[in-house]
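Render this sequence as a predicted structure.
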Amino acid sequence: MSGPDRMLRCVVPEQFSTADVEHLARLARLALTPEETTLFARQLADVLAYAQQVQQLDTSGIPPTSHAIGAPTDSRPDEVAPCLPREVALANAPGATPQSGLFKVPRVIG
């Protein structure tokens, strides 16, 4: 096999075991219950089975595309416009203090 078809084909395992899910959970630092592990193993196996079905499709006459809905130039043109007034921009912001022009957000780094 050569050309673009070579990139579309890959080996899909027949099953996705609970050991595979446990390994991925450790890598992602997720704590899963045994029930979640079993559920995710079944769901991932279903996804892999579907991927295997998709790989069987004949795409030999279909040219490669980089965008599903058209070229990125289909966007509206950039237009210079005035900025929002600070009061309007902060009107719905959480914990906003309009006099300082700031607003509070939840802490994301522990």
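Summary. Residues 1-8 have pLDDT under 50 and may be disordered. The first helix runs from residue 4 to 8.
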